[in-house]
Design brief:
Layout lengths: L1 E10 L2 E11 L4 E5 L6 H9 L6 E6 L2 E2 L5 H5 L2 E4 L11 H5 L12 H14 L16 H14 L4 E5 L7 H18 L2 E5 L3 H7 L2 E6 L2 E7 L9 H8 L11
Parallel strand pairs: 3-8, 3-9, 6-7, 7-8
Antiparallel strand pairs: 1-2, 1-4, 4-5, 9-10
The structure holds adenosine-5'-triphosphate (ATP) and magnesium ion.
């Protein structure tokens, strides 16, 4: 469903992606791991076309992601941004139902509101948050509103950037189960960025580790522990000592 081939992206002399190659088969869940600042979020934004790489190819369902109808392209995606990116002047339910209130997916207002409330329930939020503003919620609640928005229009492809950061362990478990369900029940293709190794094990079919601008290791999650890759081992065990320097 998604292919990145030899993608390069620099910001000035900061060479972030230096030949990133990645494949996500349709209906599978890929988790990207890697140190802070290695370019995970940049890679995700390149696939969405929000950042233009200097070279390389990105294909979504066999089509060049940078060409064609942007609206139709983006309508296939659900997206949770790392910082939440909620609209702070809109009540929670209108954030969740954002795409159901406009454009080609437009539904009657009451129906959109009911869908929003149902999606909020799936991320562990009660209906009474629907009419509040994002600023009136805790950080973890805002994150979950972002998740509810990402899944509201039942997209084919879902990107989650740090879905469990800032959540308590029980709520993180709820979100991990939800991501797994979306892939297995709805047949969606998912790409998740996380630092949470419990989450990696709960949601990944495949894992890819980004380091020094390239995919250092990729494989099925079951092979992660016996990879023999010193970079991956250092990362998954959280060791200060190893080939990855702590100051970057
Ligand atoms: N719009 C931008 N302009 C300039 N530099 C950017 C921009 N976006 C990202 N960068 C730089 O690209 C590098 C990778 O950033 P990115 O956000 O992808 O890291 P990350 O792997 O997602 O890290 P984290 O785990 O901390 O979220 C960083 O050095 C960052 O400063
Ligand atoms: Mg990031």
């Amino acid at each position: 469903m998604i292919e990145m081939q030899d993608v390069h992206k620099a910001f000035g002399d900061n060479r972030v992606l230096q030949g990133m190659t990645l494949t996500i088969p349709k209906g599978t869940s890929l988790v990207i791991i890697g140190g802070s600042g290695t370019g995970k979020s940049v890679a995700l934004k390149c696939i969405l076309g929000l950042i233009q790489p200097e070279s390389g190819r990105i294909l979504v369902d066999g089509k060049d992601a940078s060409k064609g109808d942007r609206d139709a392209f983006l309508a296939r995606f659900g997206m949770l941004f790392q910082g939440g990116a909620l609209f702070d002047s809109l009540p929670v339910w209108q954030n969740v139902a954002f795409r159901l209130l406009r454009g080609s997916l437009k539904r009657p207002q009451e129906e959109a509101r009911q869908i929003a409330i149902e999606k909020l329930r799936r991320v562990g939020l009660k209906a009474d948050v629907a009419d509040r503003l994002p600023a009136e919620l805790s950080g973890g609640m805002q994150k979950r509103v972002g998740l509810a928005r990402a899944i509201a229009a039942e997209p084919e492809i879902i990107f989650f950037d740090e879905p469990t950061t800032g959540l308590d362990p029980i709520m993180a478990g709820v979100i991990n189960d939800l991501i797994r369900e979306i892939v297995t029940e709805m047949g969606a293709t998912a790409m998740t960025i996380t630092h949470d190794m419990t989450s990696v094990r709960a949601i990944a079919d495949d894992v890819a580790m980004l380091h020094d601008g390239v995919i250092q290791w990729t494989g099925p999650v079951a092979q992660m522990d016996a990879s023999g890759d010193p970079y991956l081992d250092q990362f998954i065990h959280g060791r200060a000592e190893g080939p990855i320097e702590a100051v970057r």
